[in-house]
Give the backbone structure.
Amino acid sequence: VLANLHRIDPLEGLPAFGTSQEMDIVRRWAETLAVLEPETGSTAGMLAGGLEAFSAEVPAGRPCVLHRDFYERQFTLGREGITLMDLDTLAVGDPAVDWGNFLAHLVLMALADEVPATEAVESVREALAVYETAAGDLHASSLRFYWASSLFRVGAVHVLRTNTRRFSPALWALAARLLHLGEGWPPAKTKQPDRSGDLPAWSALIEGVT
């Protein structure tokens, strides 16, 4: 699905979306959590700072049409093929934007369904290889940034949801690992995620991406 979308020539009139726009969203979430969830807000602020610093390392990717909210529930399979939904956020930018969002939601789904990371990662690795053959290479730094920022956003959403907030520590811990925030992480008041053993397997997915 993403390979087909990203092969479309950028459409005239679509807004540009890059690290600057992504960081605007990240900052708004960090500011919101600082007010609504002061204890987790400090952790969010630390992650936002890490994303800000890392964003300077992200190269300008090849421009393509982006969905910007792509994940497993945004498409349906039917007799006539695949239907992609919710196109109100279409933009032009680095294909890693869509992959980062997709991967963040896959991590959440694996946590919720208790799927071992090694099992999920192998399937994703195969999908990435198929994508890069069909649509071109992803840049490792770009994928690392947009995956981490998406993990931050998804974690922020679920911090505010009683039934799923338990997944946020693992999502944010993986984001920190992708950003190389080793020293001082996790913050003293942050609970170590229950699935911390999955983090190396997930972060190793970035290996092999050009």
